[in-house]
Amino acid sequence: MTGQPVHPVISPAPPTTNPKTARSLRALDIVNLLQADIGAGVGPFLAVYLMAARRWRPEMIGLTLSAQGLASVLAQTPGGALVDYLWRKRLLIAAGAIGVGIGSLATIHAHSRRAVIAAQAFTGAAGVLLGPAIAAVTLGLVGRAAFSRRIGRNESFNHAGNVIAAAIAGLIGKIWGPSAIFEFAALASLATAGAALAIDERQIDHDLAREAPPDGETAKRFAGMRELPSDRRIPTFFGCAVLFHFANAAMLPLVGQRLAAESRANATLYMSACILVAQAVMAIVAPLAGRAARVGRKSVLMAGFAALPLRGILYTFSSAPWYLISVQALDGIGAGVFGVVAVIIISDLARGTGRFNLMQGALATVIGVGASASNFLTGVVVQHAGYNAGFIVLSAIAASALAALAFAMPETLPADEAASALTEIADDSGYRHRQ
Questions:
Q1: How far apart are the C-alpha atoms of 52 and 105, rounded to whole Å?
Q2: Residue 42: CB partners within 8 Å, gap ≥ 6?
Q3: Where in the chain is the domain with CATH 1.20.1250.20?
Q4: Which site in 58, 200, 373, 396 is 20 to 30 Å from 246, CA atoms measured?
């Protein structure tokens, strides 16, 4: 492959009126809702458990969190490649979910610090299978024509699950203690695996699920690792994504520190409010972004990127808790748009390569590295120049990400597919008007 790949004709989405297809899509909804219960929803409570139940010092807690994060970053790209190579993608979702559940139980039953750290590293590595495998199953089920809208729906269910999981975990921790949260995660992992296995394997187009070429024998071929960078859009998009997450990753921790400085007694409550506000906005924004991306990816993604520098600047105007929590709604716009449109763009870029899920894993890897560097750099800036300086630096980086996206990254949706989507939308609108 040299230059930009040839885009084949859009594969039609399987008819959702088929009862079996409808059942598979409902199961996919449940998978997206429940995966939050075993990941983002309970993850923030690990530090609380280690401090409250195990009486660990902050440096050991930090080491454990770092072990989980490092294992996740290292496993992202190989995990994506595994999803490309194996056809049993719903089994990979189930395996990843059960792996996270095993790691959660091992964390609370381990007798040594090394065992706890190992359990969390295992949890981080197992969890990386979920995202690429869910996206692959989605593409294989609904086809390219419906992929944008369906990814938006996936993300909406996922963010709604984050809100529900955080609320349930907080309640469980209050009644039964922090260790019960990890037992809840283990039960949720079994439910996630069960929902994944309820998806009908026969309805998944496995070649399409990895964006393989459609022409017979070559469908068995994967693009070589050296071929991918020859499409300049791939490293360009990765660079934009790294800049975006470099600017985004440290903003919420900085807000948390400022909230704690304002009111230590209510800092946890305020931080919970920040998370819930952002996740609620993401749940609303995600399906809208998926629909809008049907006629163009770049303009939708630019709207998400534009929210980030504005958010950083607004944080410098006041330190009042209600104000900081309100501004956090912009995180829901930026992250909500990126979570949907990035997957769609990766699908565009991977078309004909067979490397869709590998690219997803590679993107997650470079984003993870950028996010880690963000926290370190911002900590140095805040230490020497204060919180406002930290927010301004992050805003400047976010603005550079927006500029790079605007001037260096081309649209990835082929013009004929955009025109077809516009025609379909116009026909749908005309039909509803006549009704």
A1: 17
A2: 104, 165, 169, 181, 182, 184, 185
A3: 17-210, 226-423
A4: 58
pLDDT for 66 beyond 70: yes
Residue type, 126: A
Q: Fold for 226-423, please state it.
A: Growth Hormone; Chain: A; (1.20.1250)
CA distances, 406 to each of 72, 267, 306, 371 (Å): 30, 38, 10, 22
Going through 247-347 in order, the beta strands assigned E by DSSP cover none
> CATH number of the domain at 17-210, please?
1.20.1250.20
∠341-129-96 over CA atoms, to 5°? 135
Task: Give the sign of the dihedral formed by CA 12, CA 17, CA 20, CA 23.
Answer: positive
* Backbone angles phi and psi of 156, in degrees to 5: -65, -45
Q: Exposed e or buried b for every residue in 63-102, given b needs 16+ CB within 10 A?
A: ebbebbbebbbbbbbebbbbbbeebebbebbbbbbbbbbb
For residues 11 and 144, is the Cβ–Cβ distance under 8 A?
A: yes
d(CA 221, CA 226): 14
Q: Which amino acid is at 227?
A: E
User: What single-letter DSSP state applies at residue 201?
Assistant: G
Q: Which amino acid is at 167?
A: A
- Helical residues (DSSP H) of 110-232, grouped into ranges: 113-127, 130-142, 144-176, 179-197
Tell me the C-alpha to C-alpha distance, in Å, between residue 167 and each of 103, 172, 173, 181: 22, 9, 10, 11
| 186-220 per-position pLDDT tens digit | 999 999 999 999 999 889 998 899 888 765 444 45
CA distance 6 to 2: 10
Tokens matching residue 394: 């992050």
Answer whether 375's CB lies under 8 Å from 150's CB: no
Determine the residue type at 58: P
Give the pair of three-digit tokens for residue 264. 């230590």
Q: Tell me: the pLDDT tens digits for 155-183? A: 999 888 888 887 787 788 778 888 888 89
Query: Tokens 């995660």 map to which residue?
Result: 185
Place of tokens 């923030």: 44
Dihedral (CA of 373, 247, 332, 25) sign: negative
The Cα 432–Cα 145 span in angstroms is 20
Residue from 62, 126, 83, 71 nearest 379 by CA: 62
* CB of 36 closer than 8 Å to CB of 165: yes
At position 320, the amino acid (one-letter code) is A
- Judge contact between 159 and 277, C-beta under 8 A: no
d(CA 245, CA 378): 13
